[in-house]
Amino acid sequence: MSQPSPQTFEFQAEIKQLLDIVIHSLYTEKEIFVRELVSNASDALEKLRHLRLTEKEIFDDRLDLEINITTDDKAKTLTIQDFGVGMTQAELIENLGTIAHSGSKAFLKALGEGNRKDASLIGQFGVGFYAAFMVAKSVKVYSHSWRSAEPGHLWTSDGGGSYSIEESPGQRRGAKIVVELKDDCSEFSQEWQVSEIVKRYSSFVSFPINLNGKRVNTVQAVWLRGKSEIKEEEYTEFYKFQAHTQEEPRLRLHFSADAPLAINALLFVPKENPEKLGLARSEHSVSLYCRKVLIDARPKDLLPEWLRFLKGVVDSEDLPLNISRETMQDRSLLEKLGRVISKRFLKFLEEEAKGRPDSYAEFYKEFGIFLKEGAALDFSHKDQLVKLLRFESSLTEKGKTTSLADYVSRMAGDHREIYYLIGPSREAIEAGPYLEGFRARNLEVLLCYEAVDEYVMNNVHEFEGKKIQAADHADVKLSEVAAPEGALGEAETKKLVSWLKETLGSRVADVRASSRLVGSPALALNADKGMSPHLRRMMKALQKDAKDSPLRVTLEINPAHAVMKRLALSSSESPEKARLVAEQILDNALISAGLLEDTTGMVQRLYKILESV
Ligand code: ADP
Ligand code: MG
């Protein structure tokens, strides 16, 4: 029986244009052609699965729904075979010869709009079947449609302007695509290379993928299944696979949404914060999928910076054909997706904080720094983030924390501002002179131990209409309390204050009597507006060589303290010695404030004071 000879057809003009770009582009991630061909195979299997519900007569109906990939490194070929719906001759012409495909269309459109040469778009749009021509000398498609009526066909092209089709009897149902590789692309005929690529992009395809007879995809796309049917171990297994770790996750959020976008997301917080160990800054690693196929493993524009500790996947059907960083519209789509996810995750944290405070506290210890970063810098999520912040306070036990909301709920009487103090530890702050005045008036003070806290508090600035105020700032006005018995009288105090001002000269901006001190003789308040002691130290550390702005502090003294009473006496009786003591008191106050910059003079002075004892 004679068979008709091959027939030659011209590609449609747009396809020619597309092929020209694909073949001549310097696009480096050529491997995505595997993703495209596997996705097509998976689509074809999916279509067959649907057909089986309604059609009785299906060619080769016994065949399993699977994808078989084979590599031949001698012949330099890669073959991808599926037992899906296949194509008739008319369908081969229609589907592979004309541009029905929306991804390729969108790709061409994006190129038309701007940068014609920007081949980096190939990966994001997926130019579908034609991606094979990035690596192929020739592509052969053997196919038999699920309809029994006509024989199998072979479609062949070398990516030039035309392709040919001939009959090819004896084909099984589906499509078998043989890619004959260009010499410089022969790596795609090596099993281990192809295995890596399939795992990277196509691990979650629902049909079995066998590579040279071995199953490649063993982990399921759990995120698309109903929560109730997923076992804890499956989640954990998936996390370990996706995050490349042996650890279990710390927290998990699995959710789906229909509006404004169709989203299935499965997010994890790891056990530990890698940045805490001083390792490199984390990169976003919530991967973007479209119907189980990887679009971008590390999308940069999806989530806000402070969510870079999250792991997991986001799958949205609405995305793939539109993703490109080039057009505003597409970026806004990604942003929209990111907003939904961020909001949902913040809500999840709120629920955690409320429902499982201990676990939240553990999370916060590890990852609170990211929430602080967000509260300080991400204006659009600030309000939600500030509610999630936790601090120790003068009213909590050591190691226990409070939220700003709880702090505010405890504010009573004329307590109007949210006070905080920054120091290296609870002990250090409690031993310093700043807390005692607040304690004496029952005013709660948040205790902050992290270098960024100052910056965060300054940026957050207020909460529920209450100003957030550094307790060691000169502006803080505390209510009067009755002077304790035995304190210096008003006139004596005045005299001592003006003597101190004169004696300390330019080292102080001001000296004043204070009622905020209880057990300490004096304290130093920063007179520089907006520049707290800690900020000052940080600035100094950052710009070692910059010229110092002279330090100016306000010294507040405690007229009830024994040291001050003694000083009042000796300032007239033995002024030389009193001067040394005054200088030393200022230095002590500067030490407590973390502001003493030069200790050499102090040591000499201390010896002089000691001599006179
Ligand atoms: P897309 O998959 O986005 O439609 P492609 O360029 O990847 O675009 O493929 C074009 C068309 O070719 C598909 O829509 C499909 O109709 C057909 N096709 C490609 N591969 C196969 C296959 N393995 N089995 C059946 N049809 C296929
Ligand atoms: Mg496709």
Q: How would you describe this structure to a colleague?
A:
The chain has 613 residues and is α+β, with helices and mostly antiparallel strands. The chain folds into four domains: 209 residues, Heat Shock Protein 90 (2-Layer Sandwich); 144 residues, Ribosomal Protein S5, domain 2, CATH 3.30.230; 91 residues, Rossmann fold (3-Layer(aba) Sandwich), CATH 3.40.50; 122 residues, Four Helix Bundle (Hemerythrin (Met), subunit A), CATH 1.20.120.790. It contains 19 helices and 22 strands. A nine-stranded mixed sheet has the order 1-6-5-4-7-3-2-8-9, covered by helices on one side. β8 and β9 form a beta hairpin. It is elongated. The structure holds adenosine-5'-diphosphate (ADP) and magnesium ion (MG).
Features:
613 residues, alpha+beta, Heat Shock Protein 90, Ribosomal Protein S5, domain 2, Rossmann fold, 9-stranded mixed beta sheet, 5-stranded mixed beta sheet, 19 helices, 22 strands, 18% strand, elongated, binds adenosine-5'-diphosphate, binds magnesium ion
Portion of residues in beta strands equals 15-25%
Number of domains: 4
What kind of oligomer do you see?
single chain
Number of strands: 22
The named CATH superfamily of the largest domain = Histidine kinase-like ATPase, C-terminal domain
In CATH, the topology of the largest domain is named: Heat Shock Protein 90
> Strand order within the widest sheet?
1-6-5-4-7-3-2-8-9
Structural class assignment: alpha+beta
Instruction: Report on the biggest sheet.
Output: 9 strands, mixed
* Helical content (DSSP H or I, runs of 4+): 25-40%
Residue stretches low in confidence (pLDDT < 50, at least 5 long) are 321-328
